[in-house]
């Protein structure tokens, strides 16, 4: 038997050996997604946990998210941190880790990671929205006013950005500007409770 034939046999045998493993992994992802669709986040996470041991990046990200959905925030942070350590350029991981930090109201960490995202992606909407959420919850009204005000020119149709701007103006005592901004919020989102409540109380 010549060398070429031996090589072909070896490759064929290797593919036969690996095929069930690949199929098993494919079925694991399907199972996990089905459990998630059914609202069983614990089983969805358990199905893919073995793949996190091998530092599969997507497995780490998905497992971290599913732990967040279970309300297991510390475990979620732990696995997002593993994903960041594996790939420090990952915007998915740095945005993802803000979810459990927001749930724990750990606003300093939210600011750190959203700013890291914005260094790489200036106008990432998700990062800006979560940073504004942190500014609002730490009562940084001047910063929120400036930040949200700038974003209203970048995302002029967005109700949430206008609501942050209006909230900052209201807290700064600028009722006329706040009222006008909240009216614009209702144009974009007619059922916005915050805007309706403010305007009802500030006629």
Blueprint (SSEs and pairs):
Elements lengths: L2 H35 L3 H12 L4 H14 L2 H14 L4 H6 L1 H6 L3 H14 L4 H13 L3 H14 L4 H13 L3 H14 L4 H9 L2
Helix pairs in contact: 1-2, 2-3, 3-4, 7-8, 8-9, 8-10, 9-10, 10-11, 11-12
Brief write-up:
The protein has helices at 3-37, 41-52, 57-70, 73-86, 91-96, 98-103, 107-120, 125-137, 141-154, 159-171, 175-188, 193-201. The chain is mainly α and 203 residues long. The protein starts with a helix and ends with a helix.
Question: Mind explaining what this structure looks like?
Answer:
This protein has 203 residues and is an all-alpha fold. The protein has a domain at 23-107: Tetratricopeptide repeat domain (Serine Threonine Protein Phosphatase 5, Tetratricopeptide repeat, Alpha Horseshoe), CATH 1.25.40.10. The protein has helices spanning 3-37, 41-52, 57-70, 73-86, 91-96, 98-103, 107-120, 125-137, 141-154, 159-171, 175-188, 193-201. The longest helix is centred in the first third of the chain and has 35 residues, at 3-37.
């Amino acid at each position: 038997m010549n060398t070429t034939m031996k090589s072909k046999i070896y490759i064929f045998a290797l593919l036969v050996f690996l095929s069930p493993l690949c199929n098993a992994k494919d079925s694991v992802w399907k199972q996990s997604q089905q459990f998630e669709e059914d609202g069983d986040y614990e089983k969805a996470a358990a199905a893919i946990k073995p793949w996190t041991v091998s530092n599969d990046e997507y497995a780490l990200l998905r497992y971290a998210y599913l732990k967040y959905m279970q309300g297991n925030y510390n475990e979620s942070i732990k696995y997002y941190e593993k994903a960041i350590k594996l790939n420090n350029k990952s915007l998915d991981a740095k945005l993802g880790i803000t979810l459990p930090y927001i749930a724990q109201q750990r606003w300093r960490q939210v600011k750190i990671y959203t700013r890291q995202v914005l260094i790489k992606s200036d106008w990432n909407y998700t990062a800006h929205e979560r940073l504004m959420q942190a500014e609002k919850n730490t009562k940084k009204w001047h910063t929120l006013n400036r930040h949200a005000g700038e974003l209203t020119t970048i995302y002029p149709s967005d109700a949430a950005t206008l609501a942050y701007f209006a909230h900052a103006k209201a807290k700064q005592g600028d009722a006329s500007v706040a009222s006008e901004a909240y009216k614009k919020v209702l144009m974009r989102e007619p059922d916005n409770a915050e805007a309706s409540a403010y305007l009802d109380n500030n006629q």
